[in-house]
Amino acid sequence: MAAFSCSSFDHETIPARTSFTTWTCQRSKNGGKFELKASNVRPAGAISLQTEGTRTHPLTANPVKTREKESSLAFRESREEESTLSIVVLGASGDLARNKIFPALFALFYEDHLPENFMIFGYARSTMTHDELRKSISKNLTCRIDKRENCSEKMDQFLKRCFYHSGQYSSEEHFLELDKILKEKEAGRRSNRLYYLATPPSLFVDAVRCARRRASSLSGWTRVIVEKPFGRDLESSRGLTRSLRQYLSEDEIFRIDHHLGEELFENLLALRFSNLVFEPLWSRNYIRNVQLIFSDDLGMEGQGRYFDDYGIIRDILQNHLIHLLALFAMETPVSLDAEDIRNEKVKVLRSIKPLGLQDVVVGQYKGCSEGNASYPAYTDDPTVSKNSLTPTFAAATLFINNARWDGVPFMMIAGKALQSKRAEIRVQFRHVPGNLYNRNSGTDLDKATNELVIRVQPDEAIYLKINNKVPGLGKRLDCSDLNLLFKTRYPSEGPDAYERLLLDATKGEHRLFIRSDELDAAWAVFTPLLKELERRKVQPELYPYGSEGPVGVHYLAARHNVRCADFSN
Question: Any idea where the Glucose-6-phosphate dehydrogenase NAD-binding domain is (predicted)?
Fold first, then answer.
Protein backbone atom coordinates (compact mmCIF):
# COMPACT_ATOMS: atom_id res chain seq x y z
CA MET A 1 0.00 0.00 0.00
CA ALA A 2 1.41 3.39 -0.97
CA ALA A 3 0.17 6.76 0.35
CA PHE A 4 0.54 10.28 -1.14
CA SER A 5 -0.67 13.67 0.00
CA CYS A 6 -3.62 14.88 -2.08
CA SER A 7 -2.41 18.45 -2.00
CA SER A 8 1.24 18.02 -2.73
CA PHE A 9 1.96 14.80 -4.61
CA ASP A 10 4.13 14.74 -7.71
CA HIS A 11 2.56 12.95 -10.71
CA GLU A 12 5.85 11.38 -11.60
CA THR A 13 6.18 9.77 -8.16
CA ILE A 14 3.25 7.45 -8.80
CA PRO A 15 4.71 3.98 -9.32
CA ALA A 16 4.07 2.06 -12.55
CA ARG A 17 1.32 -0.53 -12.08
CA THR A 18 1.91 -4.21 -12.60
CA SER A 19 -1.72 -5.06 -11.80
CA PHE A 20 -5.06 -3.33 -11.41
CA THR A 21 -4.61 -0.50 -8.85
CA THR A 22 -7.37 1.31 -6.94
CA TRP A 23 -6.57 4.87 -5.80
CA THR A 24 -8.58 6.42 -2.95
CA CYS A 25 -8.32 9.83 -1.32
CA GLN A 26 -9.17 9.78 2.41
CA ARG A 27 -8.45 11.74 5.59
CA SER A 28 -5.45 10.45 7.58
CA LYS A 29 -5.91 9.19 11.14
CA ASN A 30 -4.59 12.44 12.65
CA GLY A 31 -7.43 14.24 10.85
CA GLY A 32 -5.10 16.87 9.44
CA LYS A 33 -4.45 15.87 5.79
CA PHE A 34 -5.95 13.87 3.00
CA GLU A 35 -3.92 10.97 1.66
CA LEU A 36 -4.00 9.20 -1.70
CA LYS A 37 -3.85 5.42 -1.15
CA ALA A 38 -3.25 2.68 -3.70
CA SER A 39 -4.55 -0.88 -3.51
CA ASN A 40 -4.08 -3.84 -5.90
CA VAL A 41 -7.53 -5.23 -5.11
CA ARG A 42 -9.94 -4.85 -8.06
CA PRO A 43 -13.37 -3.65 -6.92
CA ALA A 44 -16.39 -5.55 -8.23
CA GLY A 45 -17.47 -4.23 -11.62
CA ALA A 46 -14.40 -2.03 -11.97
CA ILE A 47 -13.18 -1.20 -15.49
CA SER A 48 -9.53 -0.64 -16.32
CA LEU A 49 -8.80 2.69 -17.97
CA GLN A 50 -5.48 1.50 -19.32
CA THR A 51 -5.29 1.79 -23.10
CA GLU A 52 -2.87 0.46 -25.64
CA GLY A 53 0.58 1.97 -25.21
CA THR A 54 -0.45 4.30 -22.33
CA ARG A 55 -1.36 4.26 -18.66
CA THR A 56 -4.03 6.69 -17.50
CA HIS A 57 -3.25 8.84 -14.46
CA PRO A 58 -5.72 7.97 -11.68
CA LEU A 59 -6.79 11.54 -10.90
CA THR A 60 -6.03 13.71 -13.90
CA ALA A 61 -6.78 11.14 -16.66
CA ASN A 62 -3.60 12.30 -18.39
CA PRO A 63 -1.85 9.45 -20.25
CA VAL A 64 1.37 8.27 -18.65
CA LYS A 65 3.79 6.57 -21.01
CA THR A 66 4.53 2.93 -20.32
CA ARG A 67 6.57 0.28 -22.07
CA GLU A 68 4.54 -2.62 -20.80
CA LYS A 69 2.36 -2.88 -23.93
CA GLU A 70 5.29 -2.45 -26.32
CA SER A 71 7.29 -5.15 -24.57
CA SER A 72 4.25 -7.45 -24.55
CA LEU A 73 3.71 -6.94 -28.28
CA ALA A 74 7.40 -7.44 -29.02
CA PHE A 75 7.39 -10.68 -27.03
CA ARG A 76 4.27 -11.89 -28.84
CA GLU A 77 5.74 -11.06 -32.26
CA SER A 78 8.97 -12.87 -31.44
CA ARG A 79 6.97 -15.88 -30.33
CA GLU A 80 5.02 -15.82 -33.60
CA GLU A 81 8.27 -15.79 -35.54
CA GLU A 82 9.42 -18.82 -33.56
CA SER A 83 6.21 -20.78 -34.16
CA THR A 84 5.44 -23.29 -36.92
CA LEU A 85 2.08 -24.01 -38.51
CA SER A 86 1.66 -27.68 -39.40
CA ILE A 87 -1.41 -28.49 -41.51
CA VAL A 88 -2.30 -32.19 -41.67
CA VAL A 89 -4.84 -33.20 -44.32
CA LEU A 90 -6.40 -36.54 -43.38
CA GLY A 91 -7.76 -38.24 -46.49
CA ALA A 92 -5.07 -36.66 -48.63
CA SER A 93 -5.49 -39.20 -51.44
CA GLY A 94 -9.16 -38.31 -51.98
CA ASP A 95 -10.84 -35.97 -54.46
CA LEU A 96 -11.71 -33.30 -51.88
CA ALA A 97 -8.12 -32.89 -50.77
CA ARG A 98 -6.70 -33.01 -54.28
CA ASN A 99 -9.26 -30.74 -55.95
CA LYS A 100 -10.08 -28.24 -53.20
CA ILE A 101 -7.94 -28.26 -50.07
CA PHE A 102 -4.42 -28.31 -51.54
CA PRO A 103 -5.26 -25.70 -54.23
CA ALA A 104 -6.76 -23.44 -51.55
CA LEU A 105 -3.65 -23.79 -49.40
CA PHE A 106 -1.47 -22.93 -52.39
CA ALA A 107 -3.56 -19.81 -53.07
CA LEU A 108 -3.08 -18.71 -49.46
CA PHE A 109 0.66 -19.32 -49.78
CA TYR A 110 0.83 -17.37 -53.03
CA GLU A 111 -0.94 -14.40 -51.40
CA ASP A 112 1.42 -14.58 -48.38
CA HIS A 113 -1.38 -15.45 -45.97
CA LEU A 114 0.47 -18.39 -44.46
CA PRO A 115 3.21 -17.84 -41.86
CA GLU A 116 6.88 -18.03 -42.76
CA ASN A 117 7.29 -21.37 -41.02
CA PHE A 118 4.61 -23.75 -42.27
CA MET A 119 4.38 -27.24 -43.70
CA ILE A 120 1.61 -29.46 -45.02
CA PHE A 121 1.37 -33.18 -44.40
CA GLY A 122 -0.95 -35.45 -46.32
CA TYR A 123 -2.11 -38.49 -44.36
CA ALA A 124 -4.02 -41.44 -45.79
CA ARG A 125 -4.06 -45.23 -45.89
CA SER A 126 -2.69 -45.33 -49.43
CA THR A 127 1.02 -45.99 -49.86
CA MET A 128 2.64 -42.96 -51.45
CA THR A 129 5.95 -41.09 -51.44
CA HIS A 130 6.43 -37.37 -50.93
CA ASP A 131 7.12 -36.91 -54.64
CA GLU A 132 4.06 -38.89 -55.63
CA LEU A 133 1.87 -36.67 -53.45
CA ARG A 134 3.45 -33.55 -54.93
CA LYS A 135 2.92 -34.80 -58.46
CA SER A 136 -0.72 -35.64 -57.67
CA ILE A 137 -1.63 -32.25 -56.22
CA SER A 138 0.45 -30.18 -58.68
CA LYS A 139 -2.04 -30.98 -61.45
CA ASN A 140 -4.69 -28.85 -59.72
CA LEU A 141 -2.56 -25.90 -58.64
CA THR A 142 -3.22 -22.69 -60.56
CA CYS A 143 -2.40 -19.03 -60.15
CA ARG A 144 -5.07 -16.38 -60.52
CA ILE A 145 -5.31 -14.77 -63.94
CA ASP A 146 -4.31 -11.32 -62.66
CA LYS A 147 -1.37 -12.68 -60.64
CA ARG A 148 0.83 -14.83 -62.84
CA GLU A 149 4.21 -13.47 -61.78
CA ASN A 150 6.61 -16.18 -60.62
CA CYS A 151 3.80 -18.73 -60.69
CA SER A 152 6.02 -21.73 -61.41
CA GLU A 153 8.56 -20.63 -58.84
CA LYS A 154 5.83 -20.25 -56.21
CA MET A 155 4.47 -23.69 -57.01
CA ASP A 156 7.90 -25.24 -56.54
CA GLN A 157 8.31 -23.47 -53.21
CA PHE A 158 4.90 -24.65 -52.07
CA LEU A 159 5.40 -28.26 -53.14
CA LYS A 160 8.66 -28.43 -51.19
CA ARG A 161 6.58 -27.74 -48.06
CA CYS A 162 4.27 -30.71 -48.79
CA PHE A 163 4.96 -34.14 -47.33
CA TYR A 164 3.15 -37.45 -46.99
CA HIS A 165 2.72 -40.06 -44.28
CA SER A 166 0.80 -43.31 -44.70
CA GLY A 167 -1.17 -44.77 -41.82
CA GLN A 168 -4.47 -46.02 -40.47
CA TYR A 169 -6.93 -43.49 -39.07
CA SER A 170 -7.55 -45.63 -35.99
CA SER A 171 -3.90 -46.39 -35.18
CA GLU A 172 -2.38 -44.37 -32.35
CA GLU A 173 0.97 -45.92 -33.23
CA HIS A 174 0.82 -44.46 -36.75
CA PHE A 175 -0.13 -41.04 -35.40
CA LEU A 176 2.78 -41.25 -32.96
CA GLU A 177 5.06 -41.80 -35.97
CA LEU A 178 3.48 -38.73 -37.58
CA ASP A 179 4.10 -36.74 -34.41
CA LYS A 180 7.80 -37.64 -34.43
CA ILE A 181 8.14 -36.50 -38.04
CA LEU A 182 6.27 -33.27 -37.32
CA LYS A 183 8.54 -32.51 -34.36
CA GLU A 184 11.62 -33.03 -36.54
CA LYS A 185 10.28 -30.57 -39.12
CA GLU A 186 9.18 -28.08 -36.44
CA ALA A 187 12.79 -28.00 -35.20
CA GLY A 188 12.04 -26.98 -31.63
CA ARG A 189 9.80 -24.04 -32.54
CA ARG A 190 6.42 -23.56 -30.89
CA SER A 191 4.01 -25.86 -32.70
CA ASN A 192 0.53 -24.99 -33.95
CA ARG A 193 -1.29 -27.86 -35.66
CA LEU A 194 -4.39 -27.81 -37.84
CA TYR A 195 -6.01 -31.13 -38.81
CA TYR A 196 -8.45 -31.28 -41.73
CA LEU A 197 -10.76 -34.33 -41.68
CA ALA A 198 -11.38 -34.91 -45.40
CA THR A 199 -12.51 -38.45 -44.63
CA PRO A 200 -15.83 -40.33 -44.42
CA PRO A 201 -17.78 -39.43 -41.23
CA SER A 202 -17.33 -42.95 -39.87
CA LEU A 203 -13.62 -42.19 -39.39
CA PHE A 204 -13.97 -38.81 -37.64
CA VAL A 205 -13.92 -39.95 -34.02
CA ASP A 206 -11.05 -42.45 -34.41
CA ALA A 207 -8.91 -39.89 -36.23
CA VAL A 208 -9.58 -37.21 -33.62
CA ARG A 209 -8.81 -39.63 -30.79
CA CYS A 210 -5.46 -40.61 -32.32
CA ALA A 211 -4.54 -37.03 -33.21
CA ARG A 212 -5.33 -35.76 -29.72
CA ARG A 213 -3.57 -38.56 -27.83
CA ARG A 214 -0.50 -38.97 -30.02
CA ALA A 215 -0.02 -36.02 -32.36
CA SER A 216 -1.38 -32.85 -30.78
CA SER A 217 0.74 -29.81 -30.03
CA LEU A 218 2.23 -29.54 -26.54
CA SER A 219 3.46 -25.96 -26.96
CA GLY A 220 0.82 -24.25 -29.12
CA TRP A 221 -2.76 -24.88 -30.27
CA THR A 222 -4.39 -27.87 -31.97
CA ARG A 223 -7.52 -27.36 -34.10
CA VAL A 224 -9.60 -29.76 -36.16
CA ILE A 225 -11.72 -28.96 -39.23
CA VAL A 226 -14.61 -31.40 -39.56
CA GLU A 227 -16.29 -31.78 -42.96
CA LYS A 228 -20.04 -32.25 -43.29
CA PRO A 229 -22.21 -34.25 -42.90
CA PHE A 230 -22.55 -33.75 -39.16
CA GLY A 231 -24.76 -36.76 -38.53
CA ARG A 232 -27.99 -37.87 -40.21
CA ASP A 233 -30.46 -36.43 -37.69
CA LEU A 234 -30.59 -34.68 -34.33
CA GLU A 235 -29.73 -37.79 -32.33
CA SER A 236 -26.74 -38.88 -34.42
CA SER A 237 -25.47 -35.31 -34.64
CA ARG A 238 -25.50 -34.98 -30.86
CA GLY A 239 -23.76 -38.34 -30.58
CA LEU A 240 -20.99 -37.17 -32.92
CA THR A 241 -20.60 -33.94 -30.94
CA ARG A 242 -20.37 -35.85 -27.65
CA SER A 243 -17.72 -38.16 -29.12
CA LEU A 244 -15.62 -35.27 -30.47
CA ARG A 245 -15.94 -33.38 -27.18
CA GLN A 246 -14.22 -36.25 -25.38
CA TYR A 247 -11.00 -35.13 -27.06
CA LEU A 248 -11.58 -31.52 -28.17
CA SER A 249 -13.11 -28.40 -26.72
CA GLU A 250 -15.77 -26.55 -28.71
CA ASP A 251 -13.22 -23.84 -29.56
CA GLU A 252 -10.96 -26.45 -31.16
CA ILE A 253 -13.70 -27.82 -33.45
CA PHE A 254 -14.34 -26.10 -36.80
CA ARG A 255 -17.40 -27.62 -38.51
CA ILE A 256 -17.08 -26.63 -42.14
CA ASP A 257 -19.62 -26.29 -44.90
CA HIS A 258 -17.73 -24.67 -47.75
CA HIS A 259 -20.84 -22.87 -48.98
CA LEU A 260 -20.73 -20.77 -45.81
CA GLY A 261 -17.39 -19.38 -47.02
CA GLU A 262 -18.85 -17.95 -50.21
CA GLU A 263 -19.00 -14.21 -50.78
CA LEU A 264 -22.78 -14.29 -50.40
CA PHE A 265 -22.53 -14.63 -46.63
CA GLU A 266 -20.15 -11.71 -46.23
CA ASN A 267 -22.18 -9.54 -48.60
CA LEU A 268 -25.41 -10.28 -46.79
CA LEU A 269 -24.01 -8.87 -43.56
CA ALA A 270 -22.52 -5.81 -45.28
CA LEU A 271 -25.64 -5.11 -47.33
CA ARG A 272 -27.96 -5.20 -44.36
CA PHE A 273 -25.94 -3.64 -41.58
CA SER A 274 -23.95 -0.98 -43.45
CA ASN A 275 -26.78 0.49 -45.55
CA LEU A 276 -29.46 2.50 -43.78
CA VAL A 277 -31.94 2.01 -46.62
CA PHE A 278 -32.40 -1.74 -46.04
CA GLU A 279 -32.60 -2.33 -42.28
CA PRO A 280 -35.95 -0.47 -41.79
CA LEU A 281 -37.49 -2.65 -44.54
CA TRP A 282 -36.14 -5.95 -43.12
CA SER A 283 -39.34 -7.26 -41.51
CA ARG A 284 -42.83 -8.63 -42.06
CA ASN A 285 -44.10 -5.07 -42.60
CA TYR A 286 -42.43 -4.76 -46.00
CA ILE A 287 -41.23 -8.20 -47.05
CA ARG A 288 -43.76 -10.53 -48.64
CA ASN A 289 -41.59 -13.67 -48.88
CA VAL A 290 -37.98 -14.79 -49.11
CA GLN A 291 -36.67 -17.51 -51.44
CA LEU A 292 -33.34 -19.25 -50.89
CA ILE A 293 -32.33 -21.12 -54.03
CA PHE A 294 -29.54 -23.58 -54.72
CA SER A 295 -29.78 -25.41 -58.03
CA ASP A 296 -27.22 -27.52 -59.89
CA ASP A 297 -27.38 -28.32 -63.61
CA LEU A 298 -25.43 -31.57 -63.15
CA GLY A 299 -26.58 -34.96 -61.91
CA MET A 300 -24.56 -37.41 -59.85
CA GLU A 301 -21.80 -37.95 -62.42
CA GLY A 302 -20.72 -41.13 -60.65
CA GLN A 303 -20.84 -39.58 -57.14
CA GLY A 304 -24.13 -41.16 -56.12
CA ARG A 305 -22.79 -43.42 -53.36
CA TYR A 306 -22.42 -40.58 -50.84
CA PHE A 307 -25.48 -38.69 -52.00
CA ASP A 308 -27.81 -41.70 -51.83
CA ASP A 309 -27.07 -42.05 -48.11
CA TYR A 310 -28.00 -38.45 -47.35
CA GLY A 311 -30.12 -36.83 -50.05
CA ILE A 312 -30.71 -33.20 -50.94
CA ILE A 313 -32.43 -32.25 -47.66
CA ARG A 314 -29.49 -33.25 -45.47
CA ASP A 315 -26.86 -32.19 -48.01
CA ILE A 316 -28.12 -28.70 -48.86
CA LEU A 317 -31.21 -27.59 -46.92
CA GLN A 318 -30.09 -28.57 -43.42
CA ASN A 319 -26.35 -27.94 -43.91
CA HIS A 320 -26.37 -24.80 -46.01
CA LEU A 321 -29.65 -23.01 -46.68
CA ILE A 322 -30.87 -23.10 -43.08
CA HIS A 323 -27.75 -21.21 -41.96
CA LEU A 324 -28.16 -18.72 -44.77
CA LEU A 325 -31.75 -18.17 -43.62
CA ALA A 326 -30.58 -17.62 -40.04
CA LEU A 327 -28.00 -15.07 -41.13
CA PHE A 328 -30.60 -13.28 -43.25
CA ALA A 329 -33.27 -13.15 -40.53
CA MET A 330 -31.22 -12.56 -37.37
CA GLU A 331 -31.36 -9.42 -35.26
CA THR A 332 -28.48 -6.96 -35.28
CA PRO A 333 -25.59 -8.59 -33.39
CA VAL A 334 -23.67 -6.76 -30.66
CA SER A 335 -20.58 -6.92 -32.88
CA LEU A 336 -19.16 -8.85 -35.83
CA ASP A 337 -17.38 -11.23 -33.47
CA ALA A 338 -18.08 -14.91 -34.08
CA GLU A 339 -19.95 -15.56 -30.85
CA ASP A 340 -22.18 -12.50 -31.19
CA ILE A 341 -23.22 -13.49 -34.72
CA ARG A 342 -23.74 -17.13 -33.86
CA ASN A 343 -25.79 -16.21 -30.78
CA GLU A 344 -28.24 -14.31 -32.99
CA LYS A 345 -28.37 -17.13 -35.54
CA VAL A 346 -29.28 -19.64 -32.84
CA LYS A 347 -32.20 -17.46 -31.72
CA VAL A 348 -33.61 -17.55 -35.25
CA LEU A 349 -33.12 -21.31 -35.64
CA ARG A 350 -34.87 -22.00 -32.35
CA SER A 351 -37.82 -19.89 -33.50
CA ILE A 352 -38.46 -21.93 -36.68
CA LYS A 353 -41.38 -24.33 -36.61
CA PRO A 354 -40.28 -27.95 -37.33
CA LEU A 355 -41.20 -29.11 -40.83
CA GLY A 356 -43.88 -31.66 -41.68
CA LEU A 357 -44.82 -33.45 -44.91
CA GLN A 358 -47.37 -30.74 -45.74
CA ASP A 359 -44.54 -28.17 -45.89
CA VAL A 360 -42.40 -29.83 -48.55
CA VAL A 361 -42.21 -31.19 -52.07
CA VAL A 362 -39.56 -33.78 -52.91
CA GLY A 363 -38.49 -34.92 -56.35
CA GLN A 364 -36.03 -37.13 -58.20
CA TYR A 365 -34.73 -36.56 -61.71
CA LYS A 366 -35.49 -39.04 -64.46
CA GLY A 367 -33.73 -39.68 -67.75
CA CYS A 368 -34.66 -37.88 -70.93
CA SER A 369 -33.49 -37.32 -74.49
CA GLU A 370 -33.05 -34.02 -76.29
CA GLY A 371 -32.05 -34.21 -79.92
CA ASN A 372 -29.04 -36.48 -80.15
CA ALA A 373 -28.22 -36.08 -76.45
CA SER A 374 -29.39 -38.53 -73.82
CA TYR A 375 -29.42 -37.80 -70.08
CA PRO A 376 -29.49 -40.57 -67.44
CA ALA A 377 -31.91 -40.87 -64.55
CA TYR A 378 -30.71 -40.71 -60.95
CA THR A 379 -31.22 -44.44 -60.54
CA ASP A 380 -29.14 -45.10 -63.68
CA ASP A 381 -26.03 -44.15 -61.70
CA PRO A 382 -24.13 -47.40 -61.01
CA THR A 383 -23.54 -46.38 -57.37
CA VAL A 384 -27.28 -45.85 -56.71
CA SER A 385 -29.94 -48.47 -55.96
CA LYS A 386 -32.55 -48.94 -58.71
CA ASN A 387 -35.31 -48.61 -56.10
CA SER A 388 -33.85 -45.55 -54.39
CA LEU A 389 -36.36 -43.06 -52.94
CA THR A 390 -33.64 -40.50 -52.15
CA PRO A 391 -34.77 -36.99 -53.17
CA THR A 392 -32.57 -35.07 -55.58
CA PHE A 393 -34.90 -32.06 -55.31
CA ALA A 394 -36.64 -30.51 -52.32
CA ALA A 395 -38.67 -27.37 -51.73
CA ALA A 396 -39.72 -26.43 -48.20
CA THR A 397 -41.65 -23.52 -46.70
CA LEU A 398 -40.52 -22.41 -43.25
CA PHE A 399 -41.92 -19.86 -40.81
CA ILE A 400 -40.11 -17.99 -38.05
CA ASN A 401 -42.22 -17.49 -34.96
CA ASN A 402 -41.00 -14.11 -33.76
CA ALA A 403 -42.20 -10.50 -33.92
CA ARG A 404 -40.04 -9.52 -36.89
CA TRP A 405 -40.96 -12.38 -39.24
CA ASP A 406 -44.35 -13.68 -38.11
CA GLY A 407 -46.33 -14.93 -41.13
CA VAL A 408 -43.54 -14.41 -43.72
CA PRO A 409 -42.88 -17.59 -45.74
CA PHE A 410 -39.23 -18.51 -46.26
CA MET A 411 -39.06 -20.89 -49.19
CA MET A 412 -36.00 -23.10 -49.73
CA ILE A 413 -35.49 -24.67 -53.14
CA ALA A 414 -32.60 -27.00 -53.93
CA GLY A 415 -32.04 -29.63 -56.58
CA LYS A 416 -29.75 -31.55 -58.90
CA ALA A 417 -29.97 -31.88 -62.69
CA LEU A 418 -32.00 -28.69 -63.06
CA GLN A 419 -32.17 -26.15 -65.87
CA SER A 420 -29.40 -23.92 -64.53
CA LYS A 421 -26.69 -23.64 -61.90
CA ARG A 422 -27.85 -21.01 -59.45
CA ALA A 423 -27.28 -19.89 -55.85
CA GLU A 424 -29.14 -16.83 -54.63
CA ILE A 425 -31.51 -15.17 -52.20
CA ARG A 426 -34.59 -13.45 -53.63
CA VAL A 427 -36.49 -11.02 -51.40
CA GLN A 428 -39.94 -10.11 -52.71
CA PHE A 429 -41.44 -6.99 -51.15
CA ARG A 430 -45.11 -6.29 -50.62
CA HIS A 431 -47.14 -4.40 -53.22
CA VAL A 432 -47.54 -0.64 -52.99
CA PRO A 433 -50.65 0.31 -50.95
CA GLY A 434 -53.31 2.03 -53.00
CA ASN A 435 -51.86 0.90 -56.33
CA LEU A 436 -52.29 4.20 -58.22
CA TYR A 437 -50.79 2.63 -61.32
CA ASN A 438 -53.44 -0.04 -61.73
CA ARG A 439 -54.28 -2.30 -64.62
CA ASN A 440 -55.90 0.53 -66.52
CA SER A 441 -52.44 1.98 -67.08
CA GLY A 442 -51.05 -1.32 -68.25
CA THR A 443 -49.31 -2.49 -65.10
CA ASP A 444 -50.39 -4.88 -62.36
CA LEU A 445 -48.19 -4.02 -59.41
CA ASP A 446 -49.20 -7.21 -57.64
CA LYS A 447 -47.07 -8.97 -60.26
CA ALA A 448 -44.39 -6.26 -60.42
CA THR A 449 -43.40 -5.78 -56.81
CA ASN A 450 -39.90 -4.73 -55.86
CA GLU A 451 -37.44 -7.58 -55.55
CA LEU A 452 -33.93 -7.68 -54.09
CA VAL A 453 -31.66 -10.43 -55.44
CA ILE A 454 -28.33 -11.41 -53.86
CA ARG A 455 -26.68 -13.91 -56.20
CA VAL A 456 -23.51 -16.01 -56.12
CA GLN A 457 -24.07 -18.01 -59.31
CA PRO A 458 -24.08 -17.86 -62.29
CA ASP A 459 -22.68 -14.31 -62.12
CA GLU A 460 -22.12 -12.81 -58.69
CA ALA A 461 -24.38 -9.79 -58.36
CA ILE A 462 -26.69 -7.74 -56.15
CA TYR A 463 -29.61 -6.11 -57.90
CA LEU A 464 -32.86 -4.42 -56.99
CA LYS A 465 -35.91 -4.54 -59.25
CA ILE A 466 -37.77 -1.26 -59.34
CA ASN A 467 -40.70 0.12 -61.33
CA ASN A 468 -40.13 3.12 -63.56
CA LYS A 469 -42.20 4.96 -66.13
CA VAL A 470 -41.58 4.13 -69.77
CA PRO A 471 -40.54 7.27 -71.70
CA GLY A 472 -43.39 8.71 -73.74
CA LEU A 473 -46.79 10.30 -73.39
CA GLY A 474 -48.44 7.40 -71.58
CA LYS A 475 -48.25 6.22 -67.99
CA ARG A 476 -47.07 2.68 -68.56
CA LEU A 477 -44.56 1.30 -66.09
CA ASP A 478 -41.67 -1.02 -66.69
CA CYS A 479 -39.55 -3.12 -64.32
CA SER A 480 -35.83 -2.29 -64.37
CA ASP A 481 -32.77 -3.42 -62.42
CA LEU A 482 -30.39 -1.40 -60.30
CA ASN A 483 -27.52 -3.81 -60.80
CA LEU A 484 -24.16 -4.34 -59.13
CA LEU A 485 -22.42 -6.97 -61.26
CA PHE A 486 -19.27 -7.92 -59.38
CA LYS A 487 -17.19 -9.05 -62.36
CA THR A 488 -17.69 -5.61 -63.90
CA ARG A 489 -17.19 -3.56 -60.73
CA TYR A 490 -14.44 -5.79 -59.32
CA PRO A 491 -12.72 -7.55 -62.26
CA SER A 492 -10.00 -9.24 -60.20
CA GLU A 493 -10.56 -12.89 -59.33
CA GLY A 494 -11.82 -13.39 -55.78
CA PRO A 495 -10.80 -16.09 -53.28
CA ASP A 496 -12.35 -19.53 -53.23
CA ALA A 497 -14.60 -20.42 -50.27
CA TYR A 498 -12.05 -22.94 -49.01
CA GLU A 499 -9.37 -20.26 -48.93
CA ARG A 500 -11.43 -18.04 -46.65
CA LEU A 501 -12.39 -20.89 -44.33
CA LEU A 502 -8.88 -22.35 -44.06
CA LEU A 503 -7.43 -18.92 -43.32
CA ASP A 504 -10.07 -18.32 -40.64
CA ALA A 505 -9.27 -21.67 -39.03
CA THR A 506 -5.57 -20.81 -38.79
CA LYS A 507 -6.56 -17.57 -37.06
CA GLY A 508 -9.06 -19.22 -34.71
CA GLU A 509 -11.95 -17.27 -36.28
CA HIS A 510 -15.24 -19.20 -35.91
CA ARG A 511 -17.64 -16.78 -37.57
CA LEU A 512 -18.26 -18.90 -40.69
CA PHE A 513 -18.17 -22.24 -38.88
CA ILE A 514 -21.07 -23.99 -37.18
CA ARG A 515 -21.35 -24.13 -33.40
CA SER A 516 -22.83 -27.21 -31.70
CA ASP A 517 -26.01 -25.46 -30.54
CA GLU A 518 -26.54 -24.09 -34.05
CA LEU A 519 -26.26 -27.63 -35.35
CA ASP A 520 -28.78 -28.93 -32.80
CA ALA A 521 -31.28 -26.19 -33.62
CA ALA A 522 -30.96 -26.80 -37.38
CA TRP A 523 -31.44 -30.55 -37.02
CA ALA A 524 -34.49 -29.97 -34.80
CA VAL A 525 -36.21 -28.26 -37.76
CA PHE A 526 -35.62 -31.12 -40.23
CA THR A 527 -35.47 -34.33 -38.18
CA PRO A 528 -39.28 -34.81 -37.85
CA LEU A 529 -39.66 -34.41 -41.62
CA LEU A 530 -36.84 -36.83 -42.42
CA LYS A 531 -38.27 -39.49 -40.12
CA GLU A 532 -41.71 -39.15 -41.73
CA LEU A 533 -40.30 -39.39 -45.26
CA GLU A 534 -38.46 -42.57 -44.36
CA ARG A 535 -41.27 -44.11 -42.30
CA ARG A 536 -43.90 -43.57 -44.98
CA LYS A 537 -41.48 -44.30 -47.85
CA VAL A 538 -42.69 -41.21 -49.71
CA GLN A 539 -42.27 -41.52 -53.46
CA PRO A 540 -40.48 -38.45 -54.88
CA GLU A 541 -42.12 -36.71 -57.84
CA LEU A 542 -40.14 -37.39 -61.02
CA TYR A 543 -38.90 -34.51 -63.14
CA PRO A 544 -36.89 -34.55 -66.41
CA TYR A 545 -33.14 -34.00 -66.30
CA GLY A 546 -32.49 -30.34 -67.18
CA SER A 547 -35.99 -29.08 -66.33
CA GLU A 548 -37.21 -26.56 -63.74
CA GLY A 549 -38.01 -29.34 -61.27
CA PRO A 550 -41.24 -30.98 -60.08
CA VAL A 551 -44.55 -29.31 -60.87
CA GLY A 552 -45.53 -29.68 -57.22
CA VAL A 553 -43.24 -26.83 -56.18
CA HIS A 554 -45.59 -24.34 -57.87
CA TYR A 555 -48.57 -25.65 -55.88
CA LEU A 556 -46.58 -25.36 -52.67
CA ALA A 557 -45.64 -21.78 -53.53
CA ALA A 558 -49.21 -20.84 -54.46
CA ARG A 559 -50.49 -22.19 -51.13
CA HIS A 560 -48.42 -19.52 -49.37
CA ASN A 561 -48.95 -16.77 -51.98
CA VAL A 562 -45.34 -17.01 -53.15
CA ARG A 563 -44.50 -16.16 -56.73
CA CYS A 564 -41.76 -18.59 -57.77
CA ALA A 565 -38.56 -16.99 -58.95
CA ASP A 566 -38.14 -16.36 -62.64
CA PHE A 567 -34.75 -17.89 -63.43
CA SER A 568 -34.50 -16.00 -66.69
CA ASN A 569 -33.49 -12.85 -64.81
Answer: 88-267
